[in-house]
Specification:
The protein has about 300 residues and is α+β, with helices and mostly antiparallel strands. The protein contains seven helices and eight strands, in the order E-E-H-H-E-E-E-H-H-E-H-H-H-E-E. The radius of gyration is 27 Å and the shape is elongated.
Length: about 300
């Protein structure tokens, strides 16, 4: 003989009346650990560790609390199962609102993760992976979905002023070393330039960071992360490298010489690259040069609307 027992009903004090009745702008959870599925090159996808904030508004002034576990479970189930896209975000946020049984009308999700991109070496036939920090902020309300994509790009910046001073020092040494030779031969000059005497000074350079934040236009399907990263790195000309052989390091030195920039120059370059993307509605960019000459950073910021 088989007996079945019905699960015992458990109390839920979230349904109690609020002691101080008032609607709430946002209720939810922060720093939830979860696996996130992201698209990769060639149409594949991979799982990456992520951190999430998820919440809804509480429109019922008299209701004590929301159904928080429902948000947690929907988040875990959805984001590991399919690659992250704007439509996936929209459906997830709507599901979070619906899960509250009429208590909520808006939902907001923030995701933070490292996105890996395979980057080719500058000269050799090698490649390596580079991690880009990403933060995605998506909100859904009666007016629709709003998605803000933020990411960081590391690059090298060589100071134009320091480069000019270095050229002057090199020219002065050349004049001193060849003062007795009104017309030095080309081989003699080439040998001098290739020697230690040919480098009287070097300009200071440093690792730098461009933090880019863009609001995407409505109707976007795929998140344009890779395209924006590519555009920013191309505009700067000196993204930090992965696999590096001697020929790559020489190519990187040439790229730095060809792309001397103050932080003001870098900010304008990045802004022009981002503003050229038709999927971007607004941008907010901060570039930081972590100075090797100074004990402080040089920083520039630019923002604006596109179109």
């Amino acid at each position: 003989m088989t007996s079945t027992t019905q699960p015992q009903a458990l109390p839920d004090v979230a349904d109690d009346l609020a002691a101080a009745a008032r609607p709430l702008d946002w209720v939810g959870m922060r720093r939830i650990a979860l696996p996130l599925r992201v698209a990769t090159e060639g149409g594949d996808s991979m799982l990456v560790p992520a951190s999430a904030d998820i919440g809804v508004n509480l429109t019922s002034a008299d209701t004590r609390g929301i159904h928080m576990s429902r948000l947690y479970l929907r988040l875990q189930d959805t984001l590991a199962a399919q690659p992250l896209t704007v439509p996936v975000l929209g459906r997830l946020l709507q599901d979070c609102i619906d899960s509250q049984s009429g208590l909520a009308s808006t939902a907001r999700l923030t995701l933070r993760y490292q996105h890996l991109l395979l980057r080719r070496a500058l000269a050799s036939d090698n490649a390596g992976w580079k991690a880009y920090p990403v933060e995605l902020d998506a909100s859904l309300s009666a007016t629709g979905i709003e998605v803000v994509l933020a990411f960081g790009v590391d690059y090298s910046s060589t100071c134009p002023a320091s480069a000019a001073l270095s050229r002057k020092a090199n020219a002065d040494r050349f004049a001193d070393d060849f003062s007795g030779e009104p017309s030095p031969s080309a081989p003699a000059v080439r040998d001098w330039l290739a020697s230690e005497r040919g480098l009287a000074a070097t300009p200071h350079a440093q690792r730098s960071r461009a933090d880019v934040r863009v609001m995407l236009r409505p109707g976007i399907g795929m998140l344009p992360l890779r395209e924006l990263v590519d555009a920013v790195e191309a505009a700067l000309g000196t993204p930090v490298q992965t696999a590096v052989k001697r020929e790559d390091e020489q190519a990187f030195a040439r790229a730095n010489a060809a792309n001397l920039m103050f932080c003001e120059d870098a900010a304008r370059r990045v802004a022009a690259a981002v503003a050229a993307d038709a999927r971007v509605a607004r941008f907010d960019i901060t570039v930081s040069h972590f100075e090797s000459l100074h004990a402080h950073d040089a920083v520039a910021r630019v923002s604006g609307a596109v179109g």
